[in-house]
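User: Fold this, then the next.

Assistant: Folding the first:
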Amino acid sequence: MKAVGRHIMRLFWVWCACALPTIAHGQSFSNTTAGALNDSTFCAGGTNANGAGVVNDLERTFAVTGLGNVTDLNVGLLLSHTWRGDLDIRLESPLGTEVQLVDPDTSAAGNLDNYNVEISDEFAELINTGSHNAGNDTSATLYEFEVSPDNPTSAFDGENPNGTWTLKICDDFTGETGTFLSSELIFAGATGADLSLVMSVDNTLPETGDNVVITLTAASEGPQNSTPTAQLNLPAGVNFVSSAGDGSYNSATGVWSIGTGFTPGTPRSIAVTVTIPTAGFYPINAEIRTSNRADNDSTPNNGVTTEDDFDAVTLNVQPPSIPPALNCPATDQFELAFGAPGTANGWSSGDLIRSFTATDPVNATSINLDFELTGDTGFLGQVAGTNTPVSQTDYTGGVAPAEFSVGIAADFNTTAQFVTMEMDVGTPGVGVGAFQFTIFDVDLGGWVDRLQFRGSLNGVDVAPLITPSSQNFVSGNEAIGQIGNAAQTSSAGNVVVTFNQPVDKVEWDYGNDASAGPNPAFQIIAMHTITMCGRRQADITAVKTVEVYDPAGLGLYMTPGNEVLYKITVTNSATATAAAEDIDLSDTLPENLKFVSATTTGFVGGAFGSPALPPTNTDCQVTACIIRYSGGDVPINSTAEIQVRALIK
């Protein structure tokens, strides 16, 4: 028999009537009407007029509709009660079947407070034993503990569930206090939390430095409440700015804590603002990371891209909208400005090959620029009734007054067709120091303009810097039209192409993007003035000499015991147009020497190293004596020298 005195110390327990989460979804049915559990619900409440025992149950009902026969039933239960083992909890079906879910229990677990449980025949732990030998927190995640009933709910299997179910609770001992808070009937297929995650961005083509808002939206199809987190994976170079929305976001880890009591049918979202200072492609993905409820069609944090709890997007961050300046002073710059057909700088109608000259102020000479249009040239069309290519002023790119540019019209049959403009610039292997030009009217209409740009010096690739406008965007080394048709006199379709390194060959392909469809419409672009930098070059000579080291003028000979002086002399001639930069000199001393020391004169910057100078008295036969000096500059009309002293063995 229980000792009555144990109740005296528990009379002052107080229940906090806080707001409760609820679940209502598909095959689950809830009752959240609070009710007192005390002496008024004493299980043995006396006798009636016939002398039969009276049970004063607290009853809560569930109106179940729209279901087939019961195959499995779980019960969620949330209530506060001192000494929960005093409670007798039963569930009655519409057909009158009654199962005692919880027997009164005098065990240690029965001495604890509160139930916040989900009851299922499939769970391993009996309701008041094992891992459930702990008091329950009624403010924690709804139905936090998973337990099995004292008597199986399988007694309901096969019944028609539609109708009124009744949950009955009474207190088997006096002097107790408590409150029924919530219960839920969860029928077969109605367990877990079917979570999904969608990611969107406000701009997939931001300009460098722009803020980009990444919105994550998590949804649950339930049926149960859950407590999930999601992982947002940002690549290197993406900088966090701020976050706002549901739950909390950890900018250091990228984890979004979506929050407790995540209710089915009520999505939660968070907006994460980032900025990216460098142009390029930035793949971003997000996935549900953890959940306290199983998901029947996806697994958190498994990286499977086809599951509905994973989403990804790639930002194509655009270069600045202002073209870069050429990296040479204005006095070194010169142009090829196109003129009217028939003039020295004009492009005559329909010519596929043209050659021009332009004066290079750095080298005080004229350089050749040789052009050839190749590819699917049979599909070229006309500008203002004139066959292209041709220099014209109808397509102006917003330049006022209008200037000549080389117009190219095409009417390709497929998106696989294109023409290529090849430009050989100056002397092969030398070329120019920088190269910049503009293409007008790269846009979108019944076609989708697509241009690909390439450069090289002596066969080695040189990457272009491409500056888009509002009606095109950059993708790698391509410019692609977007957002409608720019007017032929508008700058909205301009693309500026810059090579800020020496080039001797520049090429570009002109055709349609695959999105144009099977038969692109007629289209026109135009190439405007080319601006270049004369290429400044060093004129370097290097001479190596060796002599007896005889600073006192004693007439020493190159014999064992004496020293020799090696000199490597580098000269940048007076006729050079640039300093010799980042010179790298390396030499290995003969094996019949011992290293003594090494010094330099005349270099600007640079240092010995990689490998470091040998220690003094290093035997060059035992350890190779490598002398390397790198990173030094030699100004125009100056000489620099490395001097190495070594002892003859």
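Now the next one, as you asked:
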Amino acid sequence: MYKFLQENRYVFSISLIFLIAGIAISIWLKAWAINSQSNVHTEQQNLVEVINQLEAENLAMETAIDAIRTELAGAGFSDSEAGAYFTRLQQELADTQFNSGQTAVSGSGIIISLNDNTAGAETAKQADPLNYFPENYIIHDSNLRYLLNDVAYLAEAVSINGQRIVDTSDIRCVGTVIIINSTRVAPPYEISLIGSPALLEGALQESSQYLYLKNKNMPIKVSRSDDLQLPAYTGTIISKYAQPVVDVPQP
């Protein structure tokens, strides 16, 4: 018997290893199945929460509408007067969204195309590597801001690379990347301005930033368009410091 075990201990060892591996795989599969079920349950729970939130918001809006209707009825508004009131409110909302840049617009204007001076950078690098500074040959966030400051006051709507520019728009550098409205943009930059093409071009020709970029041989060109299409601003508008004035009844 001992001799038999000695001769077959290799087979026993292999069998034992496979047995342990099988048990380990079985445990792992069960754990994976439990984890998958947990993930599915979590996703379903999140979906339920979203649906509940939407239903709550919908109910809140319906309640608000009913309250307004009740208020109008109590104020003695007829159905036609109430309808006219709601129509006026809708028009005021549409006007506010249009004036705040939250509506896509079209019209005539100009397009300013601006790019990095890659050719000048390569020439400078080969001519004098020790005194070559790549930041001198790229467009910075400040260049875009200064250029807009010189011409945007004559425009009725502005966008840069498909990002609508409004009063609260942020144009800044993060490392080597320019961020506009929390969205990364890259050269070439296309600044679209809706307004009088003649007035916009005149302001651009007198712009100190435009002349600065031209003197640095930055590729910049201007073209007119009779049908510019600018998207709506889709970011958030949050007032940190300005607050509405509450009318105080006079004694």
